From TrEMBL:
Assigned protein family: Belongs to the peptidase M20A family.
Protein name: Peptidase M20 domain-containing protein 2
InterPro entries reported for this sequence: Bact_exopeptidase_dim_dom, Peptidase_M20, Peptidase_M20/M20A_hydrolases, Xaa-Arg_dipeptidase
GO MF entry, a single one: dipeptidase activity
Amino acid sequence: VDDLTEIVLQAIDDVSEELREISLKIHDHPELGNEERFAHELLVNYLKKKGFKVTPSAYGLETAFVAEFQSKAGKGRVVSFNSEYDALPNIGHACGHNLIAISGVGAAIGLKAVLEKFEIEGTVKLFGTPAEENEWGKIHLIESGAYKDVDVSLMIHPNVFNGAFGRFIALNSVGVEYFGKPAHASGAPWEGVNALDAIVAAYNIIPEYTSGKFFVRGRTIEDLKALCPRVQKCFEGAAEATGAKLKTEWFKEIYDVKINSPLATRYEFHNSQKFGTKFPSEEQQSSISFGTTDQGNVTYVVPGIHPVFSIFESPSKVRNHTIEFAKQARTKVAHEKTLEATKSMALVGLDILIDDKFCKEVKKSFEA
């Protein structure tokens, strides 16, 4: 096992500078969701050079891809990683997806090195998953069957905290439109049906049409499913009270991350053993919400994790989705922290390939 571990770690170290170059190129060329053509081509070409079987524009998405390597000994268990590479409007890679991109690549290269050198059954897959920030690309991949033959789905996310047990909550969004009858606010307001009445509370105009987009959040998908019908009734009540006509369009549900305790514990073990990372207790972590991710949907299909890792040398008040975080995501420190988390994730993947008992624990936790 020690020999296998060292091969994984060394393989990732060997491509560190190449990964750094890719990360900087993606960072300096930010692209919005489903428009990540530069990042897609860059990653696809690199993975081909590294000996992976790569399918560009996979599953009907122009900027998705899947890279695969199977051991000559047989398919075995399938370990998958996710790379994200979309940016945010105006502030670029303020969520550090340039780092998520190279983490998936690095982990896949680490496992590939083991599968090539030893007679171990197993397969490594890397999914390029576009549009995490706005269009929830992983949901499309799930619906297209991308994860149907996968045993685990592993990915990591840059943050200011370290932990594998933090909460990512469920979310749904709804587009709301109200249709009324226009009138002059001071001349003859009684002739109008004010669509603005239905959507806000303070104004001095009477338009015939208003629209808005609302986000509904729940700690778990069960909470969200219970809440959304109540929110719908609020919209309907506003229409009834004002006389406006209502049109709503609910979008796809984003699930909470279903934490797989054996996977999360094993990730923290490798990270603390190899790099001395200190983690808050599981209870402390579970009290923190890190937002929403479409990786949550994946974790309801296959066992998975979505640990966060700090890209700072010391505690910081900087948060994701800020210009300051975007600047930090380009630093050498962020790269080094990313490689540590990448190696830890890759070692979890190695354990899946070689440890039958661990795999049973992971499956049992998922099915519980």
